[in-house]
Amino acid sequence: MSKITEKIAKLLALAESPYEEEAKAALLQARRLMAEHKLMPEDIEPQENKKVIQECVGVTCTKLSSPWTVYLSTLIAAHYCCRPYRSSVHGSKVSEIGFIGMEDDFKLCKLAFLYAYDC
To answer: Is 57 helix (H, G, I), strand (E, B) or coil?
Structure first.
């Protein structure tokens, strides 16, 4: 399977997410790529035994002390077919960085982010 069909298959699997906005964005991106590369739904092989992971990675940040952390997570997530998010307790200024993506992509994204963050 080519890289583009793999990416579309992952996006279509992500479109099954219980999070409405995420599912909608993934489906729109998949449709755009299919149209751009003139692919039909039957040309795309489904991703079997893959699951979507949503997990925080243990890195915290605030708007004042480390605003670059959010930018870094966005930049890295875009290259690993994941979506970044921030999780915080209501009223707290501290946020924890997390990612949402397919299992294999999530693992690579987390490793790349933690390495870049430590550097």
So the answer is: strand
Divide the 119 residues of the chain into consecutive groups of 10 and give the mean pLDDT of each group: 83 84 88 87 67 89 87 92 89 90 89 94
pLDDT at position 47: 55
Domains of the chain from N-terminus onward: 3-43 (no CATH), 52-118 (3.30.1370)
With 0.70 as the threshold, say if the pTM is over it.
no
List Cβ neighbours of 22 (8 Å cut-off, separation of 6 or more). Answer: 14, 83, 100
Angle at CA of residue 2, ends 33 and 102, nearest 5°: 70
Asked if residue 44 lies in contact with residue 34, where contact means CB atoms within 8 angstroms, the answer is yes
Residue that has been written with the tokens 């795309």 in this structure: 44
| DSSP type of residue 46 | P
Distance CA 110, CA 117 (A): 10
